């Protein structure tokens, strides 16, 4: 099956690194004009410049998804750069500081949920305002295997990721008859700078031992998540909405 995004526009948040960057590149290679948004605006612009130098259409946008004004401006900038919005991957996310629920501060909880949960809602809100007017679109929200199972000392992250499933299903129901599909992807252990940061923060053993519980006995690559996102945004998945697809080497079954 040949998935093409010729004459289409894709928006990716958290696009300066890891899964977001790989997905932005995959959209560009499939023919889309791509808006790469990231709180690290300089890295987003550099990534967009690299795509442009390779002959693709791209724009880099600074956006903190926990800031409603930034999110509204991000969608406006995307549409003003390329004239429409066909696909959106709401991927920006951060890890939590490991702490038991009883010891987690309200500040840390708010920091994680404002990006990983409210940020996804904020992006959907403004993307959907545009897509419903356009009369078409596909959104994929980035959950996690942490959106399907619990884990000690990670309640804020896992709670936020679980919440994404409710946001996804509710929006999917709202727009099912309006040619707009909303799905989620649940990455397993994917080798990215986020995982490298977790290892640097003392979680090396936890990351290594996790591989023993992955049926495929390996971590995933960012490109393997990008492939699922492109499929979910493409006409190849035209009868799929409100779903959460695990891409995790069989970890959660
Ligand atoms: P990463 O750390 O490599 O990339 C995340 C990007 O998001 C960075 O460029 C960062 O600057 C950006 N970002 C952070 N806060 C932001 C904000 N407030 N607004 C806009 N951009 C922001 O991480 P990775 O691994 O690529 O993660 C991407 C998504 O995948 C996240 O939602 C993460 O929770 C999820 N995920 C990752 C897994 C993994 O094993 N790497 C496993 C399951 C889910």
From TrEMBL:
Kindly give the InterPro entries that the UniProt entry links to this protein.
Answer: KR_dom, NAD(P)-bd_dom_sf, SDR_fam
Q: Which NCBIfam families match?
A: PRK07231.1
Question: What region holds the Ketoreductase domain?
Answer: 8-194
Q: Which top-level group of life is the source organism from? A: Bacteria
Name the UniProt record assigns to this protein: SDR family oxidoreductase
Q: Which Pfam families match?
A: adh_short_C2
Any single GO molecular-function term of the entry would be: oxidoreductase activity
Does Ribosomal protein show up as a keyword for this record?
A: no
Belongs to which family?
Belongs to the short-chain dehydrogenases/reductases (SDR) family.
Q: Tell me which UniProt keywords the record has, alphabetically.
A: NAD, Oxidoreductase, Plasmid
């Amino acid at each position: 099956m040949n998935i093409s995004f010729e004459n289409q526009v894709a928006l990716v948040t958290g696009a300066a690194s890891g899964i977001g960057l790989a997905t932005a590149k995959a959209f560009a290679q499939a023919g889309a004009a791509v808006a790469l948004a990231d709180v690290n605006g300089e890295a987003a612009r550099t990534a967009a410049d690299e795509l442009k130098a390779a002959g693709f259409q791209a724009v880099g946008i600074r956006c903190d998804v926990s800031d409603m004004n930034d999110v509204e401006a991000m969608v406006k900038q995307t549409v003003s750069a390329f004239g429409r919005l066909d696909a959106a991957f709401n991927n920006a996310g951060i890890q939590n500081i490991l702490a038991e629920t009883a010891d987690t501060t309200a500040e840390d909880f708010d920091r994680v949920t404002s990006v990983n949960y409210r940020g996804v809602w904020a992006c959907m809100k403004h993307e959907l305002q545009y897509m419903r007017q356009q009369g078409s679109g596909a959104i994929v929200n980035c959950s996690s295997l942490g959106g399907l199972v619990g884990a000690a000392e990670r309640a804020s992250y896992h709670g936020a990721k679980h919440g994404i499933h409710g946001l996804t299903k509710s929006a999917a129901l709202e727009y099912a008859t309006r040619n707009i599909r909303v799905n989620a992807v649940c990455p397993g252990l994917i080798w990215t700078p986020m995982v490298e940061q977790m290892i640097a923060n003392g979680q090396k053993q936890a990351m290594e031992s996790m591989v023993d519980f992955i049926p495929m006995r390996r971590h995933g690559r960012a490109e393997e998540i990008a492939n699922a996102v492109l499929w979910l945004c493409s006409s190849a998945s035209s009868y799929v909405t409100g779903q959460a697809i695990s891409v995790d080497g069989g970890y959660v079954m």
